[in-house]
Write a structure and sequence with these properties.
DNA binding, mainly alpha, 157 residues, transcription
Length: 157
């Protein structure tokens, strides 16, 4: 039996620690705007895409409706978004920004610069890190999909 794995040698722990550190960095900045980190992510989607069906927001953020619905309700109570049932399909809900929600984009504009400075990376370093993390996510998701498909196949016999 080999030596036990060391915590500091684990990629999973490095990712976990980095994620917690970055989220903690955002917390006081977002508190000033009255947002949580997940709410900020929803607002980013809406600032980028404009009005969107709930389903599209969930897809963009990789969130299911059970997680997303409470976030949207809180954002609506805060006066930042409106939820509207679509006439042509009552099951579909479209999310739009209120004037206050649109105005909040101005306050949020400096956040990426502050976070980038705190990370100690210039723009090319941030771009490289983001691209590496996207590739990692795609690779892990692809691996999990292949594993699930292979488990679902009946054994040849």
């Amino acid at each position: 039996m080999g030596p036990a794995p060391k915590l500091d040698d684990q990629v999973c722990f490095a990712l976990y620690a980095a994620s917690r550190a970055v989220t903690a960095l955002y917390r006081p900045l977002l508190d000033e705007m009255g947002l949580t980190y997940p709410q900020y992510l929803v607002m980013l989607v809406l600032w980028e895409q404009g009005g969107s069906p709930v389903k599209d927001i969930g897809t963009a953020l990789s969130l299911d409706s059970g997680t997303l619905s409470p976030l949207l309700k809180r954002l609506e109570r805060s006066g930042l978004i409106r939820r509207e049932r679509r006439n042509e399909d009552e099951r579909s809900v479209r999310i739009t920004l209120t004037p206050d929600g649109l105005a909040l984009r101005e306050k949020a504009a400096p956040l990426p610069i502050v976070v980038g400075d705190a990370m100690g990376l210039d723009q090319s370093g941030l771009d490289e890190l983001r691209d590496t993390l996207r590739k990692l996510t795609e690779s892990v998701n692809s691996y999990q999909l292949r594993a699930a498909e292979s488990e679902a196949r009946p054994a040849a016999g």
